[in-house]
Amino acid sequence: MKLTDIKAEISPLWAEKGYQMPRFDIEAVREKTKEEPVWVHFGAGNLFRAFPAAVLQQVLDTGKHDRGVIVAEGFDFEIIDKAYRPYDNLSLLVCLQSDGNIRKKVIASVTESLKADARFKEDWMRLAEIFCSPGLQMVSFTITEKGYSVSTDDLGRGLDPVLVMGKVTLLLYERFLAGALPLTLQSMDNCSHNGDRVKAAVLAYASRWEDEGLVPPEFLAYLQDSGKVSYPWSMIDKITPRPDGKVQKLLEEDGFEDHCSITTDKHTYTAPFVNAEETEYLVVEDHYPNGRPPLELGGVLYVDRETVDKVERMKVCTCLNPLHTAMSLYGCLLGYDLISAEMEDEDIRGLVTKLGYKEAMPVVVDPGVLKPDVFIDAVLNRRLPNPFMPDAPQRIATDTSQKLPIRFGETIRAYRDRGLDTDDLVLIPLVLAGYARYLRGIDDEGRVFEPSPDPLLAELRAIVAPLEVREGKQDFSCLKTLYSRQDVFGADLYGAGLGERIEKMAAELFAGPGAVRRTLHKYVSAR
What we know:
This protein is α/β, with parallel strands linked by helices. About 45% of the residues lie in helices and about 10% in strands. It has 24 helices and 15 strands. The strands form four sheets. The protein has a six-stranded parallel beta sheet, sandwiched between helices. The longest helix has 18 residues, at about 195-210. The protein starts with 12 loop residues before the first helix and ends with a helix.
């Protein structure tokens, strides 16, 4: 059982072992896509294959669409060389369901894989050809929030950029020269108002190039004309961890040969297969000047911009992300390395359940298209407890300082804006108090651990460095410095009447070995 065999004679083992095969003519779709491409995607990582490419697979299986997606990678070219081309751009999606069932599906919607860099001349020429195709409707992205960054050095390179968004802008210039053809640039990354990030990056390059006389003013006007080029917002939600050893073993026992794991020199963890959770949401602003693939046939929700924003706020401020952060901090402090295992801990489960239902839901934004109570029920009862999902609190704790303003600061501000009493908040302060103990890097048994990467990690750790994990009096005045940081917490914690309460809780968390468990149990039980 090898991926490259499925276009030849398919072994009956595939069906016997429960593998779902494509229901469309793979070669016909590839040929049609090559001649008349409609969708190219930047970012060849696991999320793309587990979600957007899998959605398109569902659409193709209906027989109501006949074009695949072309994937381009502008950062880690080894992904193309090692995870795509050796397998004829096919992959296997392993869906890990909370009820213990496992669905395995061969994904054949990706028709070409290209390296987005001028050093790979043939690939770059093909990308330019695609961007000049009148029928191209959408260029989408899963390149992570950092992928939209623009550096002064890269802007200074003229029409020879290195960063992904510079390369995309250069390809957009080709489309402009081909007749200022309409197009949509669609971020599918998990960051707020993601379309604005695409637009800001593209305009930064185009403006600099215009200033230097490298492109005409009409190019910038083209990119700013919403009737020509659009930058819709979207909300995406799908957990796709790195390839898991247990899944590899399962596939090997099936007789599926392409079960190897791949680690690139740039530390990308990938494989010919992707393991992912069953739950997924993609809500997109429906603004496409040149039309779009019918992804609603695969479950994508198309709405207006305001609704996308409401869905994003519901998820990020209430129903998922705050719970994730709470679990990540206390999970690290209590020695857990699996989110699902944390949900078997009565105190942690109580923390996230009461945090969501009792403290966050009173100010939840209801987007209408997804009901908050249904969404959070799925999070607490299916997604987080799923024992087949190898997700870790250490992964979720990455960049916590960048997440706290939205995940908790917005709720605190909403309480004040609506005239609600912040004295009712107990568990949100407890999570923020736990951040100080987490930054100290000492778990509840007194073992040292390294906090996850974060751009402010060294700076914030220096603030709490004087604190010791021990019983007895000590000087906690440094906590005032930490909890006065509105850039970290997104709100004036002291003005909201929470600063002193958080300091007190943090002091309790430092009161010797076992203090984290005692403090967590105390406040969760009381709430």
